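Re: weekly structure request thread

Next one in the queue (314 aa):
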Amino acid sequence: MVEDPELEALRAVTKTDNETIEQVLGTWKISGGSVSEARKGIPGVAPQPVLEHGITRRIQIPGGEIGLRMFVPPNPRGVYLHLHGGGWVVGSAFERDPKLEAVATDTNSVAISVEYRLAPEFPFPTALDDCEAAARWVLENSEEEWGVRGLVIGGESAGGHLSATTALRIRDRLGMLDRLVGLNLVYGVFDLSMTPSQRRGVDLPLIPTEELRWFYRHFLQSGEDPKDPQISPLYADLEGLPPSLITVGTNDPLLDDSLFMAARLQAADCDRILDIYPEAIHAFTVLPGAAGQIANLRANNFITSCWDRSEQAL
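Done, posted below.
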């Protein structure tokens, strides 16, 4: 594996950033209480503000509706569909307004986050169905709404999982893969049967092995096979997927998921970039720190490059 000098240079400062984050976390565990308590977030950490100029749209799905949280720049080049993390159990499309607005501004994209329904109230496959419905809505309406055709999908952790599964559904169910021009897969979970790094991550921050199992128990409730390709995209046929940026830290229990997914994409002759951040922990792109700043800048550059390629192909 070729070492990236820019990322290697972050090693020392990332260690310091990790110490600060771990002091804030203390002994807190997401599985330490009820689901409703987990949804309150880390004690003492203020939530991100909900910005007044963000737009909330409701779209119809079978049996109900879901929300889309969006920021629209003056002359967009494409749509970035964001699928938030949180183990399919916690999190919201309304928790990342400042970051979503920054993506819209910095990449000249319509940035949309999906308020998909959460487990355990809505276990597998509800979140996948909701994300597919959101992607369908974007693909069917983006030209009329904003005059753009290209779509990039991305997300962190469970959002990385939902990004990959939604891409496969666009290919296999919607038949609109030509419109999907990029995937931003940020420390995604791609094997719910647990990769070696997941099983060995008993002492890692935020989502050690026991926390991962807690999420899986809430998400998969009907005896599904976690190696089913519809559940774990690592086992799926990946042929034809668009260029992907894969981002992960070496102190993340989901490290192997990204390494293995990158290898499988390469074997399927799909373009991919693998960025590995020395010492970085899970969720480092949404936590304070130099590595997260660099990773978010690289992600924005990747999204912009997707618009460049799609426009050149016209």
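The longest strand covers residues 272-281. The two ends are 34 Å apart (CA to CA).
Next request, please.
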